[in-house]
């Protein structure tokens, strides 16, 4: 596990359940990550899995003192409408996978 240098800062990323392994996350923190890329499947697996990523993301942001960017794999029509209403954008940028 290593954070990678980019033009915007040092970026770290773990896959799937690696996010729940404290030593894997510590390795990124020790490598001075500044941005953590979190990718979760979103609410497709139900309400419990909707809450777990949010908790995990906040925990990592607090422990590492870095920015966390999250991407999800699926948004249903209600979720897309909520984002469009809050962001004031068209559906194009948030649909199509």
Q: Would you give an account of this structure?
A:
By secondary structure, this protein is of the alpha/beta class. The chain has one domain (4-94). It contains 3 helices and 4 strands; from the N terminus they run ββαβαβα. It has helices at 22-30, 47-64, 77-87; strands spanning 4-6, 9-13, 35-40, 67-72. The protein has a 4-stranded mixed sheet with strand order 1-2-3-4, covered by helices on one side. β3, α2 and β4 (67-72) form a beta-alpha-beta unit. It is globular. The mean pLDDT is 81.
Helix and strand arrangement:
Blueprint (H helix, E strand, L loop, with lengths): L3 E3 L2 E5 L8 H9 L4 E6 L6 H18 L2 E6 L4 H11 L10
Parallel strand pairs: 2-3, 3-4
Antiparallel strand pairs: 1-2
Distance separating the two termini: 27 Å
Question: How many strands, which pairing sense, and closed or not: the largest β-sheet?
Answer: 4 strands, mixed
% residues in beta strands: 15-25%
Mean pLDDT: 81
Number of domains: 1
What structural class is derived from the secondary structure elements?
alpha/beta
The parts where pLDDT drops under 50 for at least 5 residues are none
Task: Offer a few descriptive terms.
97 residues; alpha/beta; 4-stranded mixed sheet; 3 helices; 4 strands; 39% helix
Quick synopsis:
This protein has 97 residues and is an alpha/beta fold. It contains three helices and four strands; from the N terminus they run ββαβαβα. Helices cover 39% and strands 21% of the residues.
């Amino acid at each position: 596990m290593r954070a990678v240098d980019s033009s915007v800062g040092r970026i770290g990323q773990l896959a799937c359940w690696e996010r729940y392994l404290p030593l894997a996350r510590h390795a990124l923190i020790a490598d001075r990550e500044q941005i953590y890329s979190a990718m979760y499947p979103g609410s497709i697996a139900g309400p419990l899995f909707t809450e777990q990523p949010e908790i995990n993301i906040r925990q990592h942001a607090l422990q590492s003192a870095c920015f966390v960017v999250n991407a999800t794999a699926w948004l249903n029509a209600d979720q897309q409408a909520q984002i469009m209403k809050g962001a004031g954008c068209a559906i194009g940028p948030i649909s199509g996978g």
